[in-house]
């Protein structure tokens, strides 16, 4: 790694930053579910963030493999957990489908041409 201590702080930050890319993640809640008032939590590379249902965009490292996880939490237990290992060669669009029952796992997958929303 090059020594950049003699550069101004802004140039050092740019030199040390990693390339990133944006991914789209669509969170689908079932039309009928045996739970209410539950929102998903997204975990990217071990860091959890509360999210909302629907379409969202997230920033991930461009050249690294990163684990994307989603789970639901209802103040008593976690459920609906699903994980996907996203590689740099994968498309930038994922879909999470929550389970209808609070003891089942969720599903997360890449959007392909036939599954992509129009």
Explained architecture:
By secondary structure, the chain is mainly beta. The protein has a single domain (19-110), classed as Immunoglobulin-like. The chain has one helix at residues 9-16; strands at residues 20-28, 40-44, 47-50, 54-61, 66-73, 78-86, 93-97, 107-110. The strands form two sheets. Strands 4-1-7-8 form a four-stranded mixed sheet, with no helix packed on it. It has a four-stranded antiparallel sheet with strand order 3-2-5-6, with no helix packed on it. The mean pLDDT is 84.
Low-pLDDT stretches are none
Distance between the termini: 45 Å
Given the structure, what is the number of helices?
1
Q: CATH first level: which class?
A: Mainly Beta
Q: Which strands sit side by side, in order, in the main sheet?
A: 4-1-7-8
Proportion of strand residues? 35-45%
| Tally of domains | 1
List key phrases describing it.
118 residues, mainly beta, Immunoglobulin-like, 8 strands, elongated
SSE map:
Elements: H1 9-16, E1 20-28, E2 40-44, E3 47-50, E4 54-61, E5 66-73, E6 78-86, E7 93-97, E8 107-110
Parallel strand pairs: 1-7
Antiparallel strand pairs: 1-4, 2-3, 2-5, 5-6, 7-8
Sum this structure up briefly.
The protein is 7% helix and 44% strand. It has one helix at residues 9-16, and strands spanning 20-28, 40-44, 47-50, 54-61, 66-73, 78-86, 93-97, 107-110. The radius of gyration is 18 Å and the shape is elongated.
């Amino acid at each position: 790694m090059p020594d950049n201590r003699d550069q101004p702080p802004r140039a050092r930050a740019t030199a040390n930053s990693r390339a990133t890319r944006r991914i789209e993640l669509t969170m689908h809640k079932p039309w009928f579910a045996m739970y209410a008032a539950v929102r998903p939590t997204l975990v990217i590379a071990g860091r959890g963030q509360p999210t909302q249902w629907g379409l969202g965009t997230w920033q991930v490292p461009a050249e690294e493999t990163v684990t994307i996880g989603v789970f639901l939490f209802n103040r008593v237990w976690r459920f609906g957990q699903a994980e996907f290992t996203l590689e740099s060669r994968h498309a930038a669009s994922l879909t999470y489908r929550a389970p209808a029952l609070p003891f089942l796992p969720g599903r997360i997958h890449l959007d392909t041409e036939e599954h992509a929303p129009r």
